[in-house]
Every structure is written in structure tokens, then in C-alpha cells.
Design the sequence.
């Protein structure tokens, strides 16, 4: 094969200063790069997380900044943790906290509530001396507690909503303003906003607010080229509110958009919920052709089996009941 | 990208290179002309009981022959040219869809922007160029494998004297090893393929990376192993790998690959039933003679019923979000084994 790729660099450049500097500070350089291509200033990104000088030091690598602060800054710029294209070696403490976080997420997702409670208590104990990032750790705990109680359905709606409100004010006390003025919010903060709106009593106010959140996400997509992953749940809430308001066509549109977005990940997330909602909305609209009805039945079966395999107990019950009513045969 | 546990990575590399803790501390001291790290401290670092001080990690990694930075990119370009890293994904996609001309053009573009002196850039270029040449049949599988091993030596200079099962590979190194395994497969060098996959599996099972990366890498290897076992008629082993894979994917809520494992389990069970091995062995030894042919038939039909259900689940899981090659494969098997249920599917 011809050697066509003539490099712009001379071969003797391997030890050059450029590379040495580059190598020394990869994570800072990554932070800087993302900020520049997404057109943010430090003043926009760091309020509530760290000071501008700290972010500046994180970017030029002159100071070792707490891993969780760097992650939070990237989160503000809508870079989810698993899309950071550098390998990171964490030391024991950071790694332990990082793994505990993941454990908590999985336990909550798998509806193992008792164990999730224990893990959260352990996490709080571990991060007691977290230093710089203690408020971020606190935010994580509050947010996860909110998610846990939401799934458990033991507490009053107002109390759960309060947890999310407390969580967001730790890093963005002025979140209402920031949201309205299209200022930068992290995926965690956006998720908190969606949850707070979810617990609103007035359903038409709720639908309006959810639509605003949806529009905010559209703006994010335009600005950064991608939907931030927290959009999936918010889209689900919006689609559900449209279904309740009998706006089935719009509901289907939002569900399809979300499912398309979900197809970019191999995680299950709320795929089943969105498929189920879409199927129900399609039924409400009615079928003009036989193929539409057949596709609808296939979608339902797909949801049913996915929920079965991944043990989504609550959803499985609902889908099973619905399928039986429809007279569709499954195992 | 993956998060690795620094201490565990250090330990694995040190042991793979046969360097004792004392020796490593000595090497560190020699470099710095003073005592840098005691044996006790090193022990504590490796076992996650102490945090590593700034700069220490880099010094240790230098001693065990690794690039020295704590966090490092997969390939390196100057800061302002980072958008070229997206080209890497594009090239990968073009290769999968066999659009080789586009792949080559994109590779040329990327190569002109990469620092040539950075070993990971060199490794990447070697690997991609060789893969393109191999896919277009310009080089033989043997040559391809040779080049891939050389590419590995870029970042693992001591490749020939370490135990492959004990080295903490990163994403790129895994990809190269995986390509080697697939090349062995293409040449039907089944023993070599199995040996390599088992070593990769053993390495991953040290769990030196975070859980969902562990699950993805582990399951990718298990999948390849399961297929190999199918080809060599080792049905039970194949099913064991599949069951392990399914368990992990369920735990991490990962939807990819799960239907492939389910397919393999069904295929294997049906093969074993056809060959008279299964479920005959489920009957206790002392009862085998007494078990009537009729009862055996009942057992068999129960097993087949379970298989049918599993294949149906697999079918419906695979059409998320849309039908693909796996769906077609599942449908073909289903139509052959359970025509009553599968013929009516869209």
C-alpha cells in the first residue's frame, strides 16, 4: 500500500516541547477543547461548581483539580462521563467513590431499594472528607435519594419534589433564571428541573413547562449537535403529559424522537416505557391499514419481552395487563 | 473511555514483567537519586489502601515501560485539531460497511494531522492500514497477524516475554487482540483462537476497569468464545459462556448482544437434543435405565418448549430499535426449528 499519508510533522519531533506539554495535561486540554468548540466561556460554565481561576488552572494543568469537579464541568458542557475520549486512571479513593456511584445507580434501577439505601449511607460516610467536591457529592446523594423515593412511591409527592429542588440549588440556586435565559445547565441540573416539573399539580401548567424543557433540549441539540442524555426522561414526561391531554399525534412524534435518540446507546434506559407509550397512543389514533395494526402488535410484544428479560417488574405488569386486554398472545 | 484502577494496573504490569516490589522501588530510587517510595507504600498503593501522590504514578509507569502520563488520549493531535479525532469513528464505520475507498481517504486526512512520534499514533496507523489491506485481500491473514503483533509491541515492548493473560490492556490493545483472534478464526486456527481468547478473558477478569466496561469487554470475548465452541461442537461450554454473558448484560442493563447469546443457547440445546445427549444427562444415573422412552420424550418436548420461548424473546429483543442481521438470523433458525410459531412473524 502506498504511503500516501505524508505527515505535516518531521520525524524528529517526537521529543518536542509541544508533545511534552500536550501529554502532561491531557484532561485539561480536553476540557479546554470542548469549551472552545461548544463556544462557552469559563464564566458561563463554572458558576456554582468552582471559581473561574480554578477552571483556568484545571485547563492549563497547573493544579490537580478534583476529578469530580472536572466531571461536573464537562457535565455542564453536556459531555456525559462515558463519552470522555481519554482513559483515566483513578487512584484508590476516587475510584472507590466512582464505583460506589455506579453501584447505587444500578441498585436503584434494579429496584433493590433496601440495598440502595445502604449503599447511599455508605457513600455519605465515604465522602465525608471529600474536600473540594463535597457539595457535588451532596448533590449526588440528594438526587439519587429522590430517584429512589420516586420509584419506591412511599413518600409524599411534595417531599420528593423538595429533594430535587434542594439538589439543584447546591450548584444552581438561580436555576429558574438560567433556564429561562437559555444559560448553561448541567445534565444533573436539567434532570432535577424535569423532576420538579413532573410533580406539579396543575396538569396544563405541567404540560406547558414540560414543553419548555423539550424546547430547551432542542436548543441544546442545535448548539452542541447532540441531545444531552438526561433528555430521555424529560421527553418521557412530556410525551406522557401529551397522552393525558389526548394529543396523540404529538405524543407519538416525541416518542419516536426519543426512541431514535435511545438507539445510539446500548443501555436499556427508558426504551420500554417509550415503546409502550407510543403503542398506546397509536391505538388511540386508530389504524387505517392492517400493517399498522400488525406493527403495533409487534411493538407491544417487543416491549413485553424486553421488560421480562430485564426484570422491569412494574412495567411488565402494566404491559401484560394491556396485552391481555388487547387479546394479543404472548408466552 | 474506560476508568482503570491505577493500583491494580500497576500490580498487573509489575507482575507480568516479573519485577518484584523491592526491585521497582529500587528502580524508582535510581531514577530520582533518592528514596521515592518504600515497599510498604507500594504494596498499599497496589491494593488500593493508599492514594497515589501526584507525579508518583507517572514515575512508576515510566519504570514499567509505559507512556508516562496519568491520563492519555487514544491518539494524539495538537489541541486545535481535535475534531480530527472524530475521523477515527468515521474510518471504523467505513471499514464495517466495506466502503474502503472512503476509509482510505479519511485515513489519509487523519494521518496528516497526527504527531508521528507518539507511539499510540503509530500503533493506530499500523493497525488500521493493515486492517484495510487485509479486508481488501491485499495481504494474507498471516501477514496481517504479524503486523498486528508488531503494532501491539509499540505500547507493550515486552510483549514476547509477558504472560498475555496477566497484562492490563486498554481499549485499543483489546481491539488489536480481537482482530488477531478473528484472523485466526478466518484461517480456522481454532486452537490458537481459543488460547488467545481465554487469555484475554483471564486478563479482563482481573477487573482492573469499571463495571460496565468490564461487562462489554467480557461479553464481547464470551460471544466469540461461544461461537467458537459451537463450531467445534463443544455445546456445554458454549452454553456456559452464554449464560455468564446474559447474567452480566442483565446486571448492567445492556441490551446489545443479549439476543446473540440467547440464539447460541437455543442452537446448542437443539444440537444436543438432536444428538441424543440432552436432556438425557439431566436424569440421575441410577434412574436412566428405568426412565421410559415416553418420559424422555416429555422431557425433550419441555426443553424444546423452553428453547422456543427463549428464541421468541431473542427475536423481539433484536428488533429494538429496528430489524437487523441478528433478527434475520434468529428468524431463519426459528423457521427451521419451530415453524408453527415463526412462520407467522413479519
Sequence:
Amino acid at each position: 500500500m502506498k504511503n500516501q499519508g505524508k505527515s505535516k510533522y518531521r520525524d524528529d519531533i517526537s521529543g518536542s516541547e509541544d508533545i511534552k506539554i500536550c501529554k502532561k495535561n491531557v484532561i485539561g486540554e480536553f476540557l479546554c477543547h470542548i469549551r472552545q468548540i461548544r463556544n462557552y466561556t469559563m464564566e458561563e460554565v463554572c458558576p456554582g461548581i468552582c471559581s473561574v481561576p480554578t477552571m483556568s488552572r484545571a485547563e492549563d494543568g497547573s493544579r490537580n483539580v478534583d476529578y469530580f469537579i472536572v466531571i461536573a464541568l464537562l457535565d455542564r458542557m453536556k459531555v456525559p462521563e462515558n463519552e470522555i475520549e481519554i482513559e483515566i486512571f483513578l487512584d484508590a479513593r476516587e475510584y472507590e467513590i466512582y464505583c460506589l456511584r455506579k453501584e447505587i445507580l444500578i441498585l436503584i434501577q434494579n429496584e433493590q431499594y433496601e440495598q440502595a439505601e445502604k449503599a447511599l449511607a455508605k457513600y455519605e460516610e465515604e465522602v465525608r472528607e471529600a474536600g473540594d467536591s463535597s457539595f457535588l457529592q451532596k448533590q449526588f446523594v440528594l438526587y439519587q435519594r429522590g430517584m429512589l423515593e420516586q420509584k419506591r412511591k412511599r413518600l409524599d409527592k411534595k417531599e420528593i419534589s423538595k429533594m430535587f429542588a434542594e439538589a439543584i440549588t447546591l450548584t444552581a440556586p438561580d436555576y429558574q433564571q438560567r433556564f429561562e435565559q437559555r444559560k448553561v445547565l448541567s445534565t444533573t441540573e436539567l434532570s432535577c428541573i424535569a423532576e420538579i416539573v413532573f410533580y406539579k399539580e396543575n396538569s396544563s401548567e405541567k404540560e406547558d413547562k414540560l414543553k419548555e424543557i423539550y424546547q430547551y433540549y432542542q436548543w441544546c441539540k442545535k448548539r452542541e449537535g447532540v441531545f444531552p442524555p438526561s433528555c430521555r426522561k424529560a421527553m418521557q414526561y412530556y410525551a406522557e403529559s401529551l397522552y393525558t391531554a389526548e394529543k396523540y399525534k404529538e405524543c407519538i412524534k416525541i416518542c419516536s424522537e426519543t426512541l431514535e435518540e435511545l438507539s445510539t446507546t446500548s443501555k436499556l434506559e427508558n426504551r420500554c416505557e417509550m415503546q409502550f407509550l407510543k403503542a398506546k397512543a397509536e391505538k388511540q389514533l386508530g389504524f387505517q391499514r392492517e400493517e399498522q395494526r400488525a406493527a403495533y402488535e409487534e411493538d407491544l410484544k417487543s416491549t413485553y419481552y424486553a421488560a421480562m428479560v430485564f426484570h422491569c417488574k412494574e412495567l411488565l405488569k402494566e404491559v401484560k395487563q394491556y396485552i391481555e386486554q388487547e387479546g394479543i398472545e404472548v408466552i | 473511555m474506560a476508568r482503570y484502577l491505577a493500583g491494580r494496573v500497576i500490580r498487573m504490569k509489575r507482575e507480568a514483567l516479573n519485577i518484584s516490589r523491592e526491585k521497582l522501588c529500587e528502580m524508582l530510587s535510581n531514577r530520582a537519586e533518592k528514596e521515592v517510595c518504600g515497599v510498604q507504600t507500594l504494596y498499599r498503593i497496589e491494593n488500593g489502601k493508599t492514594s497515589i501522590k501526584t507525579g508518583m504514578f507517572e514515575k512508576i509507569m515510566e519504570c514499567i515501560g509505559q507512556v508516562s502520563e496519568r491520563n492519555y488520549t487514544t491518539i494524539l493531535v495538537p489541541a486545535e485539531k481535535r475534531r480530527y479525532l472524530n475521523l477515527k469513528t468515521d474510518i471504523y464505520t467505513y471499514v464495517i460497511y466495506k466502503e474502503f475507498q472512503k476509509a482510505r481517504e479519511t485515513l489519509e486526512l487523519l494521518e496528516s494531522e497526527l504527531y508521528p512520534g507518539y507511539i499510540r499514533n503509530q500503533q493506530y496507523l499500523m493497525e488500521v492500514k493493515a486492517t484495510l489491506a487485509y479486508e481488501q485481500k491485499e495481504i494474507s491473514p498471516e501477514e496481517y497477524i504479524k503486523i498486528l503483533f508488531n503494532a501491539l509491541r509499540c505500547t507493550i515492548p515486552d510483549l514476547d516475554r509477558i504472560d498475555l493473560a496477566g497484562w492490563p490492556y486498554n481499549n485499543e490493545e483489546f481491539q488489536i487482540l480481537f482482530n488477531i483472534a478473528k484472523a485466526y478464526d478466518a484461517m480456522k486456527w481454532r486452537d490458537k483462537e481459543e488460547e488467545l481468547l481465554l487469555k484475554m478473558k483471564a486478563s479482563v477478569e482481573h477487573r482492573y476497569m469499571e463495571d460496565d466496561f468490564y461487562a462489554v469487554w467480557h461479553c464481547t470475548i464470551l460471544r466469540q468464545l461461544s461461537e467458537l465452541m459451537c463450531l467445534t461442537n463443544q455445546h456445554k461450554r458454549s452454553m456456559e459462556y452464554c449464560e455468564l454473558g446474559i447474567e452480566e448484560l442483565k446486571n448492567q442493563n445492556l441490551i446489545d448482544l443479549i439476543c446473540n447469546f440467547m440464539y447460541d443457547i437455543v442452537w446448542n440445546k437443539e444440537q444436543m437434543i438432536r444428538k441424543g445427549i440432552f436432556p438425557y444427562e439431566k436424569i440421575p444415573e441410577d434412574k436412566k435405565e428405568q426412565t421410559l422412552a415416553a418420559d424422555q420424550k416429555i422431557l425433550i418436548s419441555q426443553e424444546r418448549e423452553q428453547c422456543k420461548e427463549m428464541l421468541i424473546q431473542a427475536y423481539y429483543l433484536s428488533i429494538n430499535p429496528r430489524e437487523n442481521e441478528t433478527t434475520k438470523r434468529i428468524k431463519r433458525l426459528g423457521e427451521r426449528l419451530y415453524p408453527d410459531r415463526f412462520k407467522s412473524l413479519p
